Amino acid sequence: MTMIRILRYSLFILILFLPLTAFTQEKDFGIWYGISAEHKLSKKFEIDLSTNIRTFENASKIEEAFIEGGATYNLNKNLSVAGSYRLTKAVENNNSYYLRHKYFVDLKGTLPVGDFTLSCRLRYQILIKNYIQHEVDKYPSYTGRIKVKLVYHTKTFPVNPYIYIESFCPMFSKYSGTIGKNRYSAGLDFKITKRQSVETEYIFQRDYQPHLSDINIASINYNIKF
């Protein structure tokens, strides 16, 4: 597959997502900048560390910045479990920044299909806030997340295009049984070397709670393996 064909396919995917932005009045644009590192301790066990800065209000302000560390255990070549912790400093309703703590537990399965890899990640998320505006903020919030991703592996060019969709479902609250937000993405994974890569992607995120709003996101992430 040539680079031009890859770009055409990615552009086609982005065009499919654009109609989703036409149904809300509240829209925004942000840029996400990230760096992640991964180290394999053994055939089955690996650790990772990442940091990210996310902007909003047409990329003019920082919405949040975080550092996250975790570990993954590969049960077999197609199934893994993982756990991680994220320390975040995020802007709140009073326009000041406060710490947040997030804990994740993941179950991920992958399925190679020819030149494609299909994966599904189930994530259980716990969020603890330091900013208390309402009584409910005093207690942890729980979210179930499901992410389905399809990657195409090119054989003659070091670029792998991918698409994914991720849904966030609140748990143990008055919103249980609903979708809190959805993310739709199309991106390209550029292989710089065997251990280094850069991911660039477009993300359309639709929030349903506490009110309907959209944000278009450009994301760039540098990845390295040790």
Question: Stretches where pLDDT falls below 50 for ≥5 residues?
Answer: none
Q: In whole angstroms, how far apart are the ends?
A: 29 Å
Structural class: mainly beta
CATH architecture: Beta Barrel
Number of domain modules:
1
Name of the CATH class: Mainly Beta
Can you count the beta strands? 11
Number of helical segments with 4 or more residues: 1
Strand content: over 45%
- Specify the biggest β-sheet: 11 strands, mixed, barrel
Average pLDDT number: 91
Task: Please tell me about this protein's structure.
With 226 residues, this protein is mainly β. It has a single domain, classed as Beta Barrel (Porin), CATH 2.40.160. It has one helix at 3-17, and strands spanning 27-40, 45-56, 61-76, 79-91, 97-113, 116-129, 141-152, 159-171, 181-191, 196-207, 213-225. Strands 1-2-3-4-5-6-7-8-9-10-11 form an 11-stranded mixed barrel. The relative contact order is 0.18. The mean pLDDT is 91.
